[in-house]
C-alpha cells in the first residue's frame, strides 16, 4: 500500500469543485479545520491560497505555519514511537520486524512528502511573491 495516499472527503470536494467549498473561503475553512485540529485538511486549503498568487496576510502565514507544523510534528512523534518499538521491544525477535520497519518507512515517506510540499511552496510561490523579508 506504499505510495497510496489517503484523500479526505474535503480534499475530494476541493478537487471536484476547484473553488471555494460550501461557499466559504479557503482561509475560513482552514481556520475551522485548525479549530477542529484537522491539520491534514488545512494543508490543501492553504496550498490553494498560496497558489492563487500574491503575498499572504499575517493570518494566512500563521495558518500555513500551524498546518504544516502540526502535520509534520504528528508524523515525527509517530516515527519516534515506531522507531522506539523497532529498537527496544523487538530485540531478537524477527517475527514482526519487517512489518514495523515497513510502517516506519511509510511514515518517513510522509515526512519527506510534507517537507517537499513546504519547499515547493516556498520556491514556487511564497518567496517569489514576497515583497518583504518576513
UniProtKB/TrEMBL annotation:
GO molecular function, one term: monooxygenase activity
14-3-3 domain span: 26-134
Gene3D superfamilies per the UniProt record, alphabetical: 14-3-3 domain
Keywords: Monooxygenase, Oxidoreductase
SUPFAM superfamilies given in the database record: 14-3-3 protein
Family note: Belongs to the 14-3-3 family.
Protein name (record): Tyrosine 3-monooxygenase/tryptophan 5-monooxygenase activation protein
